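Hi W., the magnesium ion complex you wanted:
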Amino acid sequence: PTAPSVMSVNGHFANMGENATKEQYERGIQVINENQEFNPKLPKYLSLEKVSPVGFNYHLISVFGSQSTGKSTLLNYLFGTQFGVMSEDDRRQTTKGIWMSKNKKDHASTDSKNMAENILVMDVEGTDGRERGEDQDFERKSALFALATSEVLLVNIWEHQVGLYQGANMGLLKVVFEVNLELFLKDTKSNPRSLLFFVIRDHLGTTPLANLRNTLVQDLTRIWSGLNKPPGLEKSKIEDYFDFAFAALPHKILQPERFVSEVAKLGTRFREGHRDPRRDPLRGDQEFDGGVFLPEYHRRIPADGFSIYAEQVWEQIVNNKDLDLPTQQELMAQFRCDEIAREVLVDFDEAIIPFENKQAEGIRSGAPEVLGGLGAAMRTARMKTVKNFETEASRYHKGVYARKKAELESKIDGRLKVLFQGQLSAAHKSGVRTFSDAVSAAVKAGQKRGASYDFAEIVDREKKAALSKYEKEARGSLVEGAPWSNYKQEMTLYQKELSEVSGRLRRDEMRRLATRVERWVRSRLGESVGLEFNALGSGRGGSGAPESGERGSEKEIWDRIWSIFRKTVQEAERRFTDRAKSFDASSGEVDVGLWRLRRKSWGVLRAKIDEEMMEGNLLLKLRENFEDKFRYDEAGVPRIWRPTDDIEGIYTKARESTLTLIPLLSRFQSAHTSTPPPLDEWIGGVPSEATPADEEDLTPIGGVDEDEGKSLEEEMTILTDAKRQDITTRFKKTADGVYVEAKRSAIGGMTQ
Ligand code: GDP
Ligand code: MG
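Structure:
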């Protein structure tokens, strides 16, 4: 093949255009340019050549040898590459640097003698500075680079150079050996081996290859023994580090056909090989068993990490830093694992960020939502992310890989945990709300129907529904294997809150019940107590005790009211207790409800009494009472006054009788004991279960709530002294009026 001879211009990398295509890399890529700069496009090249994803399934060969010994020519024939070759007529030196190209020889046939897959070849140019009198700096650097990366070093040598121990080739090999010792000194664990593959060019055939090989092995052994070895390695042997192989090629110009056929034969040796335990590393030859690529030569750099590894290594070499390969491998592993983590997180983000946004939105708006499909998305994302990371990153340094995997897991688990917790909290909030709404709605529906509804049953049913909904949502969001995937504690909290809410709802229901019972008490008392006061107007006593005589009956009005009151409240208490028990109220709650009921009922009674005792009502009643006694005789027949009647006597008697009502009505007290009813005892002390809220809306009662500064005596005072006085005066005037009228009618009746 013919190829352009000049690969790069003025130190710029060839093929550096942004839109590099495969065609632009036809001649391979200049990994290191003549200014000793590393080409940042290497990853791009490897991915264009589809090498990046192959893991360890690739091979690296470097070629070494003096300038113009036909190295590039050989590679181009062997691997179908298009490395620059010095033109025949213009024997100009090609540029220095390191080129790389992928093997272009087809290996699609099933023949087991085929070349290995993914062979990368590095053409190291200008390695023999000594011939041109230049410094050996680049020679050393490129040797280090090649050894740190390559499995096979092709050493190109003219036949006539074999045995010239002092020659340039041997100098080059000495450098290779020195560098190798330096390089792998620290890597005692893996102790990598390399294959030195000698290709003897322009082999005339007169000296058999075996002889040439022996000469070379002798020279190599001499070089090795002459090396300054680092402490501890003084006794090391060349075969501890290298295997050897040899091949000879005929003259390309003089025997072109044989050259081509021998190169083709040589090509078949570049396949996967297995070590034959009997094989002597120094006895490599054409009849080599198997291929040249033994697994132990592989530098174990995953293909997708090769670029970064090579760059780091070159960085160290160029800056004359101590090249510590295990450290470089760790650094590469870190770099690549981070990169892989970033790559796998792209898909993770795509799947998870929409949920994160939605959840954040819900929290911001104060209405967190249970996100549908979250569980499935989390399970898939977590599984895929970890799996993708494992696939790519597990080829790297085990320790680094394990650490980075843990980092990645904790990173995604951190985010998934937040989502999970948010989901639980949304399920919690919406569950509590739904529960409370459902119970209220059912109660309202029950009230509307008018029928008595079973509050306890409603609560029980809705609680079960709320729990099973929560459980379903929580279970649906679990991610097997994730350390956060558990909702036991949250479920307990949820149950606790449901119980709190049902307690609150039950207390509400108790209040509603209390209101209903109070209303009943008000209506009953309004009627029965009203009757008692109305009876005063008849002057013949209340309905309660007709047999005890009319005056006695009037006197016992408070005893009767107290008795009516107690009976009414007792009945109310019974109703309240029955109903409250039906919805599972605790006995403490019932006690509080009854206590409140008694207090409120007293308030109802007191208000009813005050209403009856309003000035106008009271005066009317007194007047009726008086008139009844004055204008009707004992048999209840209306009197027709005659002048002979003792109008004054009847008047005085009736007036005095009615006037006794005023002190009687002024104070709520028993006619028998002249003491107020035992209201404090009857109401009882504050139940221990009562909360401040239970006492908040209560009106203080004198003698019951001592700290109110009002005594029971005052509570039972219906009319103050001043009021009594006033009523007495006004009543007397009314009575006087009636009397005058009667007197007039008596006289009038006589004159007529
Ligand atoms: P490199 O510098 O080692 O890469 O050598 P090149 O491949 O550029 O070849 C240098 C010169 O040697 C070119 O003019 C080639 O034509 C010539 N050449 C290539 N192969 C052979 C060979 O096998 N024998 C001889 N004598 N010349 C060769
Ligand atoms: Mg060349």
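Strands lie at 29-32, 59-65, 97-102, 119-125, 152-158, 194-201, 242-248.

W.
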